[in-house]
Amino acid sequence: MSVAKVSEISATSSKSFEDAIVQGLARASKTLRHIKGAWVKEHQVRCDDGKIVEYQVNMMVTFVIDD
């Protein structure tokens, strides 16, 4: 039997939403083992003079707890 836990994280990128997701999961994997998936629950952008300067995602990361 496995038990999983969910942790909410926020990640940003100046490139794209996809890059924010990749960077967020890469950072989360440094401290969380056995990551099984992520649910991106929010997308946001930060603008300056009408141009997008930052992409942000809020994710729920699911990982299995060690026995």
Task: Describe the protein.
- There is one protein chain.
- Helix content is 18%, strand content 57%.
- With 67 residues, it is an alpha+beta fold.
- It is built from one helix and three strands.
- The protein has one helix spanning 17-28, and strands spanning 4-13, 35-48, 51-64.
- The protein starts with a strand and ends with a strand.
- A three-stranded antiparallel sheet has the order 1-3-2, covered by helices on one side.
- The chain has one domain: Flavin-binding protein dodecin (Dodecin subunit-like, 2-Layer Sandwich), CATH 3.30.1660.
Write out the CATH superfamily name: Flavin-binding protein dodecin
Mean pLDDT: 96
Distance between the termini: 9 Å
What is the CATH topology classification name?
Answer: Dodecin subunit-like
Structural Rg? 14 Å
Our count of helices gives 1
Query: How many domains?
Result: 1
What CATH architecture would you give? Answer: 2-Layer Sandwich
**Strands side by side in the biggest sheet:** 1-3-2
**Most strands sheet:** 3 strands, antiparallel
